[in-house]
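quick q for whoever's on today - can somebody do inverse folding on this one?? i tried earlier but teh output was garbage lol. tokens:
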């Protein structure tokens, strides 16, 4: 099986839930800072984001929590605390690595960042 991630922004999984970076003023819009980014750089940013999350949890809370924002109802954003420990914070690459190694799935993971407004056909030659 092959899994292709087209997201053009860093994704970190906290307790199996995906979280992405957003601007405070535009929580439902992709950040333009990542437009045109290549996969290797994007995965490096995810690793750094994971490290930052773990550092925040260590520094800000004796319980190892971090502050996230989640959508409760359509359009309603609410801040909440979330447990953040090495075992439950994963990058996209680590999620699929665990599927292969620990759970035995035969999955191949590819990261091909595509701008939301971009043309999908431009990458079809890459994945065939």
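ok took a stab at it. sequence:
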């Amino acid at each position: 099986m092959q899994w292709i991630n087209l997201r053009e922004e860093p994704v970190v999984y906290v307790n199996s839930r995906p979280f992405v970076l957003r601007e405070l003023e535009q929580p439902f819009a992709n950040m333009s800072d990542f437009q045109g980014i290549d996969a290797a750089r994007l995965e490096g940013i995810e690793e750094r984001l994971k490290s930052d999350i773990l550092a925040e949890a260590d520094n800000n809370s004796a319980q190892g929590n971090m502050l996230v924002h989640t959508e409760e109802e359509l359009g309603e954003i609410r801040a909440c605390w979330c447990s953040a420990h090495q075992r439950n914070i994963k990058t996209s690459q680590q999620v699929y690595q665990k599927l292969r190694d620990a759970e035995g799935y035969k999955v191949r993971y590819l990261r091909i960042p595509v701008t939301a407004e971009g043309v999908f056909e431009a990458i079809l030659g890459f994945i065939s």
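fwiw The chain has a mean pLDDT of 82. also The chain has one domain: 2-127. so keep that in mind when u check it
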